[in-house]
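Sharing a chain and its predicted structure for anyone who wants a worked example. Both blocks are below, sequence first, C-alpha cells second.
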Amino acid sequence: METAITMPVTQNLLKHRLQAGEVLYGCWVGLADAYAASITATAGFDWLLIDGEHAPNDVRSLLAQLSVIDASESLAILRPPDGNSTTIKQYLDIGARSLLVPMIDSAEQAQDVLRATRYPPQGTRGVGAALARASQFGAIPDYVQTANDEMLLLLQIESVKGLMAVDDILAIDGADGLFLGPSDLAADMGYAGQPNAPEVQAAILDVITRTKAAGKIAGVLAMQETTVATARAAGATFIGVGIDVTSLASSLRALAGQYSGSQH
C-alpha cells in the first residue's frame, strides 16, 4: 500500500530575515497580471508586494501572481484592500504568509486584524485548510497547528489618528511591525501630493524610531535615494523602493520623449 507524500512545514523567510535585522528592499506589484509579475520577479528584489488595495486584483489574479513570485528568489507579501476578515481569510488560504494591512487607525482595529490572521483559539481565521493552497491541499499535515507562528503581519499607518495610536498598536503582541504610507499620511496631515514635506517626513522618521525601539519591524515606501538612506538610518528594514506601474510608465514616456516630434 502506497504512503501519501507529506510536505514539511517551511519557515516564512521574509518574517525570519526581518526579525534577524536584515534590511530588505522591495517593489510594489500593481500591474495585476501574472506575466508582468514574472518579469518583476527576475529583477532581484528581496521582496515583492502584490497590491490588492489600489491595483485591479481579485483573489484569482492574486493567486496567479503569488504563484510566479513563490517560484522566484523574491519573497511575496500581499496587501488586502482593508482589514476585512473574510478577505484576509481568502488571502491566507491561497498561500499568503505575509500581509501588509492598510489604513490602521487604532489598537482595536489592529487587534481585529491580528485575530483574523490566526486560527482559534488565538484568532478567528476559519479552518478550511484541506481546501487551501496554503496547506498544499492537506499535504502539510500540521499546517493548522503551525500557521500562526509563521505569519508575518505588518500594519500600515497612514493617518493622523494612526500616528496618535502608534504606541498602543506597538504594544500588541503578535503584530510584527509598522509600515508608513507617505502619500495618504501627507494628505491627512494637510500636505496632499507632498509626501516629502518636512513635517510628513519628520512624522515618518519618528514612527520608524519608535517602532525600532519597541523591537519591531519598521517599514516605509521611499522612492528617492535620500529618503531611503534617511529611513534606513532611522531603523527601517522593510523598504519599498519602487512601483512596477510607475517604473513602466516613466520608462516608456522617457523613450517616447526621445523621438516625439523629431525626425529621427
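Comments welcome. The chain has a mean pLDDT of 95.
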